[in-house]
C-alpha cells in the first residue's frame, strides 16, 4: 500500500510541474504578443505622424492566451498611449 501512495504523490507532483510549465508558457506567449503589438502600433503611428510619449502599453486580456490564439478570437486587447498628438493637436483620451 505504501508503494501506491508514492506513485500517487509522484503523479500529483508531475501534474503540478506540468501545469506550472503550461501556465508559464501561456503567460510568456502573451507577454511576447503584447510586446510585438506595442512595436507595431509605435511603427504605424510614426508612419502617420502621430506622436506619443514613450511606448504604447498593451495588455491582452483573458486566460488562457494560447487558446485565444488558436481560436482566433481575443477577449480584449487594451492599448494605452500617453502624450498623443496629431498635427499639433493633443489627444486626451
Which terms would index this structure?
93 residues, alpha+beta, three-stranded antiparallel β-sheet, 3 strands, rod-shaped
Describe this structure in words.
The mean pLDDT is 92. With 93 residues, this protein is α+β, with helices and mostly antiparallel strands. Strands 1-2-3 form a three-stranded antiparallel beta sheet, with helices on one face. The N and C termini lie far apart (65 Å). The longest helix has 46 residues, at 2-47. The protein has helices at 2-47, 65-71, and strands at 50-61, 76-86, 89-91.
Task: Provide a quick synopsis of the model.
This protein is 57% helix and 28% strand.
| Average residue pLDDT | 92
**How are the strands of the largest sheet arranged?**
1-2-3
- What is the CA-CA span between the terminal residues? 65 Å
Element-level helix/strand string: HEHEE
Radius of gyration: 21 Å
Number of helices: 2
**How does the helix and strand content classify structurally?**
alpha+beta
Coarse morphology: rod-shaped
Helical residues, percent: 55-70%
The counted number of beta strands is: 3
- Strand % is 25-35%
Major β-sheet profile: 3 strands, antiparallel
> Low-confidence segments, ≥5 residues, pLDDT <50?
none
Amino acid at each position: 500500500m505504501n508503494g501506491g501512495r508514492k506513485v500517487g504523490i509522484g503523479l500529483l507532483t508531475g501534474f503540478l510541474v506540468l501545469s506550472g510549465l503550461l501556465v508559464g508558457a501561456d503567460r510568456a506567449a502573451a507577454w511576447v504578443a503584447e510586446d510585438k503589438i506595442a512595436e507595431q502600433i509605435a511603427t504605424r503611428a510614426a508612419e502617420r505622424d502621430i506622436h506619443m510619449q514613450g511606448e504604447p502599453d498593451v495588455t491582452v486580456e483573458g486566460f488562457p492566451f494560447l487558446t485565444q490564439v488558436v481560436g482566433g478570437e481575443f477577449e480584449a486587447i487594451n492599448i494605452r498611449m500617453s502624450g498623443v498628438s496629431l498635427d499639433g493637436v493633443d489627444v486626451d483620451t
